[in-house]
Design brief:
- By secondary structure, this protein is of the alpha/beta class.
- The protein has a domain of about 150 residues: Flavocytochrome C3, Chain A, domain 2, CATH 1.10.1130.
- About 40% of the residues lie in helices and about 10% in strands.
- Strands 1-2-4-3 form a four-stranded mixed β-sheet. The protein has a two-stranded antiparallel sheet with strand order 5-6.
- Helix 3 packs antiparallel against helix 5.
- The radius of gyration is 25 Å and the shape is globular.
- The termini are far apart.
Length: about 325
């Protein structure tokens, strides 16, 4: 860093380390002016000023472009006035904008949610709050008396439209990477089991009619879709295609050693482990009415932007 600082006025570090490690780097090396970090589970994050380093990050998978406008001064020192005054408000503004956009994506909220007054009221409150926060940011910027000697910055995020045509060369790189990930998962494996789960075949012995209807759903063939794409050993994909391991579970390598009976999205995904219930059905009750939160772990906007809990839950069996 001593040598680089003699040669460059502005030093930028590209990092795939954890946010904690990047903060430690910022504290130890104040001559690094900007860190652009990228993690598998990253999301849009407005610049955070640590020591004299701006830590920036955009959402994963190239879905957003982060645009950082810099007014750089020779002192090499960032002003903290913008950060202290408006950063939290800008973060709230971005969050509110995303929530409003998600509701508006399905059409005019007045029409789409006319039979859901609670949702429509929430939408109006979000819009009202967005206007208030926007005014607060504008007022704060007008009142700022920024130092003429220090560098300033402004950050925005630009969403990439899904209609943009895929680049063949990038597609080839992505597919090769997925193939390597799948091969790595196949070689690692795991000897851990889920002893409280019995598989859907045990359930249909008593719930025969429900089992027949489930067999006709996409859930009953979820694992097969990964096999067809040669991704059945990809621990990032597997939790949404098997039973017993949540997408939020930190022990996702479990998915590599599941028996065939737990492949696909079975009964116990929604109703919970069934071993105790098979032994004593009267005492060991299962979850009879899963809520939307459980479904949304996999049916997120990223993977299923048309998901509607009240309608789609009728298709499970």
């Amino acid at each position: 860093m001593k040598e680089i600082s003699k040669q460059a006025d502005l030093v930028i570090l590209l990092s795939s380390l954890s946010p904690l490690e990047n903060k430690q780097i910022s504290q130890e090396f104040p001559n690094i002016h900007i860190i652009i970090q990228a993690r598998m589970f990253s999301q849009n994050q407005n610049p955070v000023l640590v020591n004299n380093t701006l830590i920036c990050q955009a959402a994963k998978q190239g879905k957003y472009i982060g645009r950082l406008r810099v007014n750089w001064k020779r002192t090499g020192t960032w002003t903290d006035e913008t950060t202290d005054s408006t950063l939290m408000k800008r973060q709230e503004f971005d969050r509110l904008s995303r929530q409003i956009k998600k509701l508006e994506n399905k059409g005019d909220p007045k029409i789409v949610y006319k039979d859901s007054p609670a949702t429509l009221q929430s939408y109006y409150k979000l819009v009202e709050r967005l206007k208030y926060v926007e005014k607060e940011i504008s007022d704060a910027q007008q009142n700022m008396n920024q130092s003429q000697e220090n560098s300033t910055f402004n950050n925005t995020f630009l969403a990439i439209a899904p209609t943009i045509a895929a680049d063949p060369e990038m597609d080839e790189i992505i597919n090769k990477t997925k193939t390597k990930i799948n091969a790595f998962g196949r070689s690692v494996g795991s000897d851990i089991t889920l002893s409280d789960y019995v598989g859907s075949q045990a359930c249909v012995k008593c719930h025969e009619e429900i089992g027949k209807r489930w067999q006709l759903t996409h859930h009953a063939h979820a694992y097969e879709t990964l096999v067809q794409k040669n991704q059945q050993f990809n621990v990032k994909c597997l939790p949404c295609h098997v039973t017993g391991v949540s997408i939020l579970d930190k022990k996702q390598p479990l998915t590599l050693s599941l028996p065939d009976s737990l492949h696909n999205v079975g009964c116990e995904t929604c109703h919970g482990p069934g071993k105790a219930h098979t032994v004593n059905p009267e005492e060991a009750k299962l979850n009879g009415s899963p809520d939307a939160y459980l479904c949304l772990q996999c049916h997120s906007t990223e993977h299923d932007d048309a998901f509607h809990f009240e309608q789609d839950k009728k298709l499970v069996h």
